[in-house]
Amino acid sequence: MRIHTWSVSSVILFVGAFFVCAGDPAYAYIDPGTGSYLLQFAIGALFALLFAVKAFWGRIRESLSRAFRRTQGRGNE
Predict the structure, then answer these.
(1) Confidence band of 72 (pLDDT split at 50, 70, 90)
(2) Total-model pTM
(3) What is the Cα Rg of the chain in Å?
(4) Among the residues of the chain, which ranges form H helices?
């Protein structure tokens, strides 16, 4: 007997929705420090990405120039 994939996934979705809707209220809040922490994390991730690009810029530029040189050479043949 083969079980249809859509029926299994719909049962899982229904059970998950039931547990989400039937839960007790959490009475929780997000304090202002959390928003500040998330903002600091986002800015730090941006600067880390910029630093990584700067640190490896020579390698990135060299690999891109090799890739474009190969592409241009094949088009002229």
Answers:
(1) low
(2) 0.44
(3) 26
(4) 5-21, 32-55, 57-75
How far apart are the C-alpha atoms of 48 and 43, rounded to whole Å? 9
Round to whole Å and give the CA distance between 53 and 60. Answer: 8
CB neighbours of residue 27 within 10 Å: 5
Nearest to 36 by CA among 44, 46, 27, 48: 44
Read off the pLDDT band of 8 (50, 70, 90): confident
Residue 5 falls in which region: left (phi positive, over 0), alpha (psi -120 to 50) or beta: alpha
Q: What gap in Å lies between CA 8 and CA 4, rounded to an integer?
A: 7
Are the C-beta atoms of residues 53 and 60 closer than 8 Å to each other?
yes
